[in-house]
Structure formats: C-alpha cells, structure tokens
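Researcher: For the record, we're logging two predictions in this thread. I'll number them. Prediction 1 follows.
Model: Prediction 1, sequence and structure:
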Amino acid sequence: MVQDTRRVQTAVLGRPDSDHPISLPTDRRKAVFYLSRYRGKRFFCGIHLGGCGWELMHKLYGDRVCHFAHHPDTKGIAPRCERRHVGTDSADHLYIHRGLTHQLGKSASPQRFQGTMVNGQCTDLLVNASQGRAAIKVQFMHLSRDAWTKKDEELRSRLGQVDWVIGPYAAETTEYLLDRNGYALRVRCEHEGSTRVVRVGTETREGDLEWSRLDECEINEQGIVTPPLRKIRRIAERKVPEVMQYPGLPLTVKKIVIYPSEHSTRPAEGADGFHATAATVRVAESEPMHAWIMLPTPAKLVVGEPYSLREPASVDVTRNPGHSPRIWTIFSPGLLPIRPAEQTSVSPSRLRQPGTTPPLIRNKLSSLIQDMRRARKAGDYEHIIQTLTDNADLLNI
C-alpha cells in the first residue's frame, strides 16, 4: 500500500509516463477553476517527476492547502513512492520541455521526453532539432568545465548545432558559455495565474541579465534567439565596417567555401571589435588551406560543415614565420551555411562526416584540441598557428 501523506502539488496528465505537467493551485477557488478544464481526466504521480506512477486524486480544502494525494490501495499492489520533490517547482523541467517543443512546432505531437532523472530530480534534458534548427540542451545541474566540454563535443559530433540553456541550479556553468560565446542563456519557470510560465534569460559578459517569455523567442539554426540577442545583433550589424575599412585587399567570395575548425568564434587578439575562428578554406577545386576568419559579431558554427562568406569581404595574407605556407586572415560580415552539405560540389573529400573518425585519430585530435585550448587560454596565438601548421596532415584527414 502506498504510504505517502505528503502534499503533492504537481502531477502529470493522462498516464504515468506522460510529459504533460499539472500544478494544482493551493487556494480552493483557484484549484476548482483550474481543475474544471480537466474534467474526466486522470492524474498520475508521473515517472518523469521521479514518482511511482500511481494514480492521484485531488484534495480540495477551504481551510488548508489544496493538493494531490495517492489513490487508496485496497489490494496492496501499489508501489512504494520514493518521490522526493513535490513542490510547485518539481515539474518545471516538464514545463520547459513542452515549451521548447511547442516553439519547435511540435505542439500537436510533443517530442518524447529525453531527460535524465537522478534521485527524483531532472539533471538535464535534450530537445532534438527539427530540420534547419539547433538541438537544445538544458542543463539543470552544474558541470565541471572538462565534463561540459566533453559533453558539448559529443553532442555536436552527433547532432550538429547544439544550443545550451542553463537552469537555476547550474549558474556556474554559464561561465563556460560566456567565455565561448560572449553571452549565456538561462531558464526558469514562474507562476502566472494558475500555471507555470517558462522564461529565458540572456546574460552577457558585462553582467547584464534580462528575462523574456519563451513565446517571445525564436528557435532557428543558431539556437534560441531571445529579444535581447536580436537587439545585440542588430546593433552589431549596423556597426559592420565597409570593405575599405577591412584590413587587406577586397576579396571576391564566389567559389570560396569555409569549413570551420571550431564550434564558435572568440574575441580576436589584436583586432578590436572582431571575433575569430580557425578554419579550412577551399577556393574552387584548389587544395584546402588553413585560415583565420574574422567576423564583427560572435557566431556559433558547425565544425567541418561548408559555409560561404557574406560580402563585402577582404583578405590579409601574411607569411608564417619559419614556414613556407602563407596564413590567410579573412574579414567578412558573416558566414552563411551551404545546404545541403552532402550536395556541395566543393566539399573536400578529406573532411569526414561527424562520427566517422577512427578511434586512434580521434584520440590524437582530442589531444591536439586540449593543447590548443591551453595555448588560447595563455594567449599564445603564435603557438596555435604553429600547431595548426605542424598538424596539417592530421587536420586534413
């Protein structure tokens, strides 16, 4: 028999494995009005809430807090309920999941819940991308930098573009996103009337944090675009310098294909206002070469996927000290994905699709990436260029 006398404020609708959360108001009048929309429906102690799956009934009081309770077990067959979190915020991960899938256009048939439950609490969840949109990883528990980096690389190798969103109990993890992207997205739920509303926060390196309703945001190939992000990007676009202000010579972008070597840009050393990323460049059918791509705004990229340059663009070519290959530095207002990647005629055969790299080479690449990260953290960009040159054959497998 179920032995659980706690006040359960949240349930799921329809079946034990449902991802449709219900949060019962504590006030009787509000609870009665709220339940009126669910006449004839059944409520359960949902397994995605860390519950036992047993059916719940509502308890309405005028002098006490209204709540859900487990149905009496007259046959002694009910499982023991180990649910630890029963408050109004215990279903927030389900509200966030349904909100994100709705924004992706899946509200009629929500995506299967892909969350990790530990001790009855959701630690993270994944919302898969629809075509042309980024997958979204919501992190509710803090990760170390090494653990986050490893998970980020694994997700991107498997899914392509992935946008991270950080929950209230993982605030420290935002530091990694601020370092990489210049901003971080956060998420929380708030009461609004008789339901929970999902809000997305945009945090910047300057310490600003602005919250927006999820339905005010857009989800596209760059991930979740909040109203503050739209404003930041519009301002940045107005500040794009004309081609004659770019260093180097004007560049004709036709037949030039860029294959990023990094997942995102970072502030460029010695080039105020620009964000840099390493890349492989191919012009028509020529041999691939290494280059630095300089953009006026931060950008998230898919490693190894083809991009074209936005115009106007310019190129500054310098000789790498001690080595014959020249280093290209290309300035452009932005990169445009070339889709579908499989059909591009200029895709170099040496660039493998994600997930096909042999284990030995993958280990070598992991070591190389760690070495370059340390050099970047120390500001030793000459070492990065030297490393790219010395490992040209490995990078062009």
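Researcher: Logged. Prediction 2.
Model: Prediction 2, sequence and structure:
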Amino acid sequence: MPNKKRLLVLDTNVLMHDPTAIFRFQEHDIYLPMVVLEELDNGKKGTSEVARNVRQVTRFLNDLIEHHNEELEHGLPLNTLAHTQVECSGRLFFQTQMFEDILPSNLPGNKPDNSILNTAMVQQKLHAERVTLVSKDINLRIKAHALGIHAEDYFNDKVLDDVDLLYSGLLQLEDNFWETHSNNLESWQDQKHTYYKVQGNDVSGWYPNQCIYSEGKNGFVGIVKECGNDWATFQLARDYYNHHHSVWGITARNREQNFALNLLLNPDIDFVSLVGIAGSGKTLMALAAGLSQTLDEQRYREIIVTRVTVPIGDDIGFLPGTEEEKMTPWMGALMDNLEVLNPVSNMSGEWGRAATADLLHTRIKIRSLNFMRGRTFLNRYIILDEAQNLTSKQMKTLITRAGPGTKIVCLGNIGQIDTPYLSETTSGLTYVVDRFKPWAYSGHITLQRGERSRLADFATEAL
C-alpha cells in the first residue's frame, strides 16, 4: 500500500482483542461498520475479559461522541481523549447509512463477515486505494483478498517480529572469554557463594539473572547478579545434578534445568518464567521448588496453582462442587507431577499415604483465573501454568495480584497456543519474557530438551 493516509475498516475482533485499537493507527482514519457496533452490543454482557474489553470500547466511543457536537458523517477527531496517552491524529467514522449489497451472490460465509466485506468494498469504490480491512480473522482476510480488498492483521500487540528473537535467558561465553578478560577479573566469596566481576564491552548486552556458561575443560556455569554499561557481576550456579542437592527428590538432567532450579530457589527473584517444549520439566521443577520452600523452608504460606481454562474468562461450567473441584479436570498435569514428587510406597501404609496427601492438600490450592481480579496474595508461591494462552492484558491483571513476599512462576510452551487470535509473537507469555528481562528481580530460561521419556522425545522430533 502507498505510504499515505488510509481509511481502516475495523473488524469486531480487533476491538475485542484490544479496546484501545482505535487509537493505535497514528494519522490514519478509522471506519466502524454498523454490524461491528451490533456485535459489540451483543458481547458486552458477562465477566469475561472479552466482555470487559467490549465495555471499555463502548466507553471510549461514548466519550468521543460526548466531546464533539459535530455530525458523525464528518468523523470525530481521535486526539481529544487525553487519558489514552497515545498520539493519533486521524478521525473516527461510523457507518450512518445502509449500502447496496455489491458482493457476489454466491459468496459463502456468515452475515456479519459478509456485511463487513460489503462495507469495505463500498468504501474502496469511494476512496480507491486508501481502504484497508483490519481483522484478526485469517479466513476473513483471505476472503477479502479474493474480492480484491486489501486486508491486514492487527500488528500493534506484536511483541517481536520473529519468535526466534525471544530472549532465552541463556548465553554461551566465547571460548577465549577468560583469556581476554583475565586482566579485569575480580573474585571473592560471600556466604558460601563465589562471585566474579568482569569489565569490557562484551558484557554490555547482559541482563540481570541471565544464565551464562562456557564449554570445554574449564566449563563454567554462572548467573549474572548485577550489570552496567561495561561491567557485570555474576556468581557460580549451584549444582543440582547431585542427589545430595536434590529438590524434593528431583535433580537436574541438563544445563537448562539446573539454571531453572537456581532461579526458582532464589529468594531474591520475585518472578520466574520458564518456556519449553512438552516434557521439559517446567511444571515438575516449579512444583518441587515450591514444595521445598513452602514445607521445608517455610518461606511461603502456601502454593497456588492455576492455569488457563480455554476459552479463557468464560464460566468454568456447571460442574458440581467448589471452585477447586471445578478446576480439577484442568489440573491433570498437577496431579501427575504430584505423583512423581510423592511416590506411593507400600512401606508407608495407608495411614502414611493419607497423611502425606492431606498435608499436600492443605498447602497446595487450586484456583481459577476467573476469580483473580481484585485479589492480593501475600507470601504465596503462585504457579501460572499454560501461560501462553493469555493475552498481555490478562497477564498484567494476574501479575499485579502479587503482594509482599509473593513469587510468581509462569510456565508455558509458545508452540502450543490454543486461544483464538493469539500467536507466538503476541502471546502474553512472550510479552512478559521480553518486558521483564531487564528487571533485577526476575529470571527467565528457555528449556530446550524434553526429559519425559525416549518415546516422547522421538515423537517430538518425528511427528
């Protein structure tokens, strides 16, 4: 498309996904078909995140109309609402008249989508190459292209251009790193930890709590503690490969798992994100670290485990029982990992197994995401599983629930996203990994290898 002021016809799902979307197109004009307003009206009821977004959109539209007495045919300037904090100089137009149906008579599809396509075609005839249809619906964009209408996805919520650019939390040092930095190297010990400080341009791109390592006979594994423009301080990572240093009977099977346990067991880190393929040990390590710090060290009062019930935000169903019992069908992964951490032994007898199960039940609480809004958690260890299915706004809502002494662990596989209109580059998990990397009290690691079984590893590679 030529680089000039455009008229953007918005689909309903764009506004449902991001209620501030009408302010995100800078100098370009926005056009809202009447069917979009009808769909917004139908989706405003309920307590889901989508319903909240719809209500916010309608409030924005109402504020724009109240700030201007101009006729809607001339459009409303979008730069009048100071609280949006976004620079935009375009105008907002509403469909104020019915258009003749100019779509092919045999065009399949539902009426709302076809109505939006018809509106876009009419505007395209009126404004030539200025018109662009913006939609999160891939099929609608394909139909638009088939009809000769220029269509695009909504890119404003895109965190990265390519998922390969996502921060991994892991950095391999050059083979000659120690030789080139030996003159500016300091080392000391404090509370049984060994620390190093290096200077040079090579460390300018490091982040706090980044995991660093070197290969070879002088192999090194460490975690960055502090860093500046041309200096960094890091400490030796603790070895969790050894059974003497196991965490609730769990030991690290590879370098990434060892780094993950270091981050999970560090009391100075408030937020940890673990991204990895199925079977890489995310849930098992997070749960083992939580049990160790809750039951053994008594650092936290209890463990709260929650995960996304797709579709997120809808009622979790008319299942009988309490909130925890309703969430049980979604918590199969938790139960599977508890069986690993608390193996059933014939030596303990029925009473011993029941006592252990009751102890775990009193310290591990299962909660639904639907009831997190407005809550504050003090001294809790919160595990947020399947976080790749959350949007950036939902992730913000959940993380801001943390009170003093609380640690949040986000787990997910960005290659398995089930939520509509989310992708690897727009997922809330990708968003927090990218935004938290410079913060001194957060840590991230991407787990590369599956350790579930040789069958699962082969299936991951071959299927």
